[in-house]
Design brief:
The protein has 436 residues and is mostly helical. The protein has a single domain (25-429), classed as Ammonium transporter AmtB like domains (Ammonium transporter fold, Orthogonal Bundle), CATH 1.10.3430. It is built from 15 helices and four strands. The strands form two sheets. A two-stranded antiparallel ribbon has the order 1-2. Strands 3-4 form a two-stranded antiparallel ribbon. A hairpin with a 2-residue loop joins strand 3 (118-119) and strand 4 (122-123). The chain is globular and about 60 Å long.
């Protein structure tokens, strides 16, 4: 009888032991993975609010600081609602035919996504939220391309249309089971989906809208570098959720993604600072934090496929190439991408997509990462990576241009010259960032 009771006690305790170990075998959930993904989701949202908002807010002139904060905040709210209504379904549902290009309607209003729904080893609700935060930050990044001159109403219409017509198709191609995923395209955390997409949209917006009044003759320095540095630090920390969270599990892949993310950011910062020091004679605070963002954006697509050696080279390349890209875009071509979204994110994302194929190879000794897909070669994978990057550029460039032209012909894109001179804080929101 005593032996029977002990056996019953062990049997009763087994579910508790499984829960303690982080595994619920009955429904496939892992509490450790779930906890990490909840944390990662919060970190990625933290990148936009307050990280990106403060980073951008400090970079604009004082009369426009509130407009940038407002745009980031409003985008976060609007995209969240649109994601629940239809965005997640168009991203996640897949199948044959048309669904290689865009998802279906089966999960509109999150149909079937209840407390018991599971995605991998986490509740599907957590996966919905995690992917939502990527959809939030991508249009928010574009704000830097048209900062200080777009009407608030135009910004809202643009962000909503761009989410559905540009972001969701590309995200589905890569992460939702679409045609690029089928070809073995490697984009671990958003080199194409987020950074190329945002960078191309930003430079198209800058070209369509034209330069800010006085650019390039009038100096337009950041009004508050302390705000920018604070936002940059938040971005750096939040990026661990962005990249390591994309492993979708609390495992060795997530740990490696976090390590290479940090390495790439540090290397990018130092490389940018060095280039600036050589060219201008002094290193700047703005330069070192911009190099950090370039390093992070460039390591993002590779973060789940490379080791620390590869991350070091990718980060250094990002700091050098993105630095010179800003010089060409702003100084040579005189394109007023206000906050350097294209040279940092667009160029960095493209560079990272290509270098993923190189440094994920098993044939690079100490610089090898987790390896290419079985049977792949560096040349073959480079072809796939180039195809995905070019397809993203083409789709985003054309889609963004069409959306801007439609909005320009209806709502109107740009504030008038007097409003631009007075500042968007007053003319769009009837408020001031500072009352000194």
């Amino acid at each position: 009888m005593g032996g029977t009771m002990k056996a019953l006690n062990r049997a009763a305790a087994l579910p508790l032991l499984c829960l303690w170990a982080g595994t619920a075998a009955a429904d496939g959930l892992d509490s450790g993975d779930t906890a990490w993904m909840l944390t990662s989701t919060a970190l990625v949202l933290f990148m936009t609010l307050p990280g990106l908002a403060l980073f951008y807010g400090g970079l604009v002139r004082s009369r426009n600081v509130l407009s940038v904060l407002m745009q980031c905040f409003a985008i976060a709210c609007m995209v969240s609602v649109l994601w629940v209504l239809a965005g997640y379904s168009l991203f996640a549902t897949n199948g044959g035919g048309l669904h290689s290009l865009i998802g279906g309607t089966g999960k509109f209003l999150l149909a079937g996504v209840g407390t018991d729904a599971v995605e991998g080893s986490m509740p599907e609700t957590v996966f919905v939220m995690f992917q939502m935060t990527f959809a939030i930050i991508t249009p928010a990044l574009i704000v830097g391309g048209f900062a200080e001159r777009m009407r608030f109403s135009a910004m809202m219409w643009f962000s909503a249309l761009w989410l559905f017509l540009v972001y969701l198709p590309v995200a589905h191609w890569v992460w939702g089971g679409g045609w690029l995923a089928g070809r073995g395209f490697m984009d671990f955390a958003g080199g194409a989906v987020v950074h190329i997409n945002a960078g191309v949209a930003a430079v198209v917006a800058a070209l369509v809208m034209g330069n800010r009044r006085g650019f390039p003759a009038t100096p337009m320095p950041p009004h508050s570098l302390p705000l920018t540095v604070t936002g940059a630090c938040m971005l750096w920390v939040g990026w661990f959720g962005f990249n390591a969270g994309s492993a979708l599990a609390a495992d060795g892949a997530a740990g490696m993604a976090m390590l290479v993310t940090h390495t790439g950011a540090a290397a990018g910062s130092l490389a940018w600072m060095t280039q600036e020091w050589i060219k201008f004679g002094k290193p700047s605070v703005l330069g070192i934090v911009t190099g950090m963002v370039a390093g992070l954006g460039t390591i993002t697509p590779a973060s789940g496929f490379v080791g620390p050696g590869g991350a070091l080279v990718i980060g250094l390349a990002a700091g050098v190439i993105c630095f010179w890209a800003t010089q060409i875009i702003k100084r040579k071509l005189q394109i007023d991408d206000s906050l350097d979204v294209f040279p940092v994110h667009g160029v960095g994302g493209f560079l990272g997509i290509l270098l993923t194929a190189v440094f994920a190879s098993d044939g690079l000794g100490a610089f090898s990462g987790l390896g290419l897909a079985e049977g792949s070669t560096i040349a073959g994978q480079l072809g796939v990576q180039l195809l995905g990057a070019v397809a993203t550029i083409a789709w985003c460039g054309i889609g963004t241009f069409v959306i801007l032209k439609i909005i320009g012909a209806t709502v109107g894109l740009r504030v008038d010259q007097d409003e631009e001179t007075e500042g968007l804080d007053i003319t769009q929101h009837d408020e001031r960032g500072y009352n000194l």
